[in-house]
Amino acid sequence: MTNETKIKIKDLLQKFCEGFESQAKAAKALKDVSAGTISQLLNHKWDLIADRMWISIGKQIGFEIGNWKIVETYNYKIIRGILMDAKAQSRVHAIIGGAGWGKDAAAKDFKAEVDAVYLINCNEYFNKKYFMVELLKKMGKNTDGTVAEMVERAVSSLNRTFRPLIILNEADKLKDETLYFFITLYNLCEDKCGIVIMATDQLEKRISRGLFLNRKGYQEIFSRVGRRFIELKKPSKTDVTAICSVNGVTDPETIMNIYNSCEGDLRRVKKLIQNAHKDADKKCQAA
Description:
Layout: H1 3-17, H2 23-28, H3 35-42, H4 51-60, H5 74-89, E1 92-96, H6 103-113, E2 117-121, H7 128-139, H8 147-160, E3 165-169, H9 176-179, H10 182-189, E4 194-199, H11 201-212, H12 218-224, E5 230-231, H13 237-246, H14 252-262, H15 266-286
Parallel strand pairs: 1-4, 1-5, 2-3, 3-4
């Protein structure tokens, strides 16, 4: 790993730690990273820090090895505005958009730049306890105790924090009991903590179906997100062109091929741009 890459990770880690009360609490939000390691890394005592630790820390705080540049696409701007509003006004919003439409990148970028933002990437296996463990880890808090004790600890901290924001990414993966568990957080932190739910349109369909069948918790969820899902747009040709140009692909024909092949998925755009660079390198070597 180059020294330049290490400096970039160090700078990003410094920003990450600023969102916590101490380096020890920042370490609790990371997996298999001690406060001592963070201290060494931030103080340029790098001799004993293995590359795998650099890579692990980098991945956890949103650093991507390489020169990939994030572009402020239409969806990026919409998501950022919604996150800012939720944080500043302690409001609840629900954002829906297709896979690869830029939700993850916008949320990670926002979390890296703004203090007191807790980004949780949801999974199917989350139950109430695991959900609270993940939240407390992101907050740098102790994860011991019962669910009730963990909720009390999280709520107490959130209510004492200046404009905190919880982002529940891929919330459509949560089981019913965990999904409507967010009502508890809302009720206990109302007007003191913003919450943004991000998912595919499957979440809206699921909520609509739950409302029709009068399932437990669904009326409450729908009410707390303002009875509205904010819909993103499929990435446009303008978005794809900007991403290509910023990341070194400027040939109009190549850009058009990428746009026609990406199916509106920005993850595929990234892969196609990387492939375009590899093809260009091969041609240079063959010349």
